[in-house]
Hints:
There is one protein chain. It is built from four helices and twelve strands. It is α+β, with helices and mostly antiparallel strands and 181 residues long. The chain has one domain (4-175): M1 Pyruvate Kinase, Domain 3 (Beta Barrel), CATH 2.40.33. The protein starts with a helix and ends in a 6-residue tail after the last strand.
Amino acid sequence: MIDPTQELDAWYEALPRSPQDDGHVVRCVVRTGSGERATPDSIEVRVGKGVTGDSWSVHIHSAPESEVSLINIHVARAVADGDEGRTPLTGDNLQVDLDLSEANLPPGTLLEIGTAVLIVTAYPHRPCKSFIARFGELHAKRVARAFRAGKRARGVLCNVVREGALNVGDRIRVARPAPGA
């Protein structure tokens, strides 16, 4: 019999690996209302406002350190059980093929995407009640365990440093902070 703790770790380890330095945007998502999502080919981001047209600024749980949210596409596909039509329900603005782990993207890391620049914040991105309702308790436990292990399966939260446009297919260039900075 498989140890439940090992199973919670094994699902993440079985996912395809993403690049550490040269990722790309797979999908843009705009939360247009409660449970409603648009998936445009491009979005605009603004300092202090996040994604133009997104409900982040009026959401009850929004925090200043969470203007734009990213999730790894392989995690999104796993929690949606491979159903591409359900992956936008994670609620993350960008679904990316990039290693989002703490070791790879410590707080302060800059992400240059399209004409915009985002900065990774230390604000934790955890499964919320809506995530649990949409994807189930098992997926939420898997994601939470990977979060505690520093893998950030739920994703990463960023603020906008430079306003601009981001497009599906855009390259993500990673600029890590200097050690001790």
